[in-house]
Amino acid sequence: EDQVTQSPEALRLQEGESSSLNCSYTVSGLRGLFWYRQDPGKGPEFLFTLYSAGEEKEKERLKATLTKKESFLHITAPKPEDSATYLCAVRGGYQKVTFGTGTKLQVIP
Amino acid sequence: DGGITQSPKYLFRKEGQNVTLSCEQNLNHDAMYWYRQDPGQGLRLIYYSQIVNDFQKGDIAEGYSVSREKKESFPLTVTSAQKNPTAFYLCASSIDRTVGSNYGYTFGSGTRLTVV
Fold it and tell me: To the nearest whole angstrom, how far is the Cα of A89 from the nearest Cα of chain B?
């Protein structure tokens, strides 16, 4: 059974304090790893898809990286508007998508 | 702007009552999905549809039903058989028919259902 574990559950940063969110996974034949951002009371917003180990993608202050066992979402010099829950998901060989429980990020001005 | 519209935003259900959640998209996407989100759990797939007039059960389909009569619409009915329906329900679509498209999902803003 595919599994996704995200850590930490919650993270509090000062504005400008860079950090990383972790997504560890076990999957039978990775077909894609996804990152989403979810604001309170809203649906998730798609950020990135990563396909293979060594791949990296960037969007503004966010950079996602992928290894064979985990993915990191690096946040550089975060701003208060980056506060949200970040979800990780994997798509395995059986086409099933498994979501993690998310990391709730709070950036303090 | 293209997107997914879910309604209502909040819904209250009495015991033994069926309720229907609306999901409409104007993205011209073939595939549509219903997910349930509970605190401390990852999103769980209820039903999905890859084409009009066809749909498949997800991981937690018991107590739910769907229809896909139009490409734009994918309503979800929560029946009285669903014993614990209180949750946040999310509708999503994807540009291709492959389940869990690598282009990612476009989600609606969700419907919060509460049993009273």
Answer: 9
Hey, of A3, A51, A55, A99, which one would you mutate to test binding to chain B, going by the most B CBs within 10 A of its CB? Answer: A99
CA-nearest of B32, B78, B76 to B52 is B32
Question: How many Å apart are CA B106 and CA B27, to the nearest integer?
Answer: 9
**Conformation bin of residue B46: beta by default, left when phi > 0, alpha when psi is -120 to 50:** alpha
- Please write the tens of the pLDDT for every residue from A28-76: 889 899 999 999 999 999 999 999 999 999 999 999 999 999 999 999 9
Q: For B79-96, what is each residue's pLDDT tens digit? A: 998 989 999 999 999 987
Interchain CB distance below 8 Å, A41 and B110: yes
Please, what is the Cα angle at B3 between A106 and B8, to 5 degrees? 80
Contact (Cβ atoms closer than 8 angstroms) between residue B14 and residue B114: no
Structure tokens that stand for A16 in this block: 């400008």
Closest alpha carbon to A67 in A22, A97, A107:
A22
- Give yes or no for A41 touching B (CB within 8 A): yes
Paired sense of beta strands A97-99 and B4-7, if any: unpaired
B46-B51-B55 Cα angle (round to 5): 30
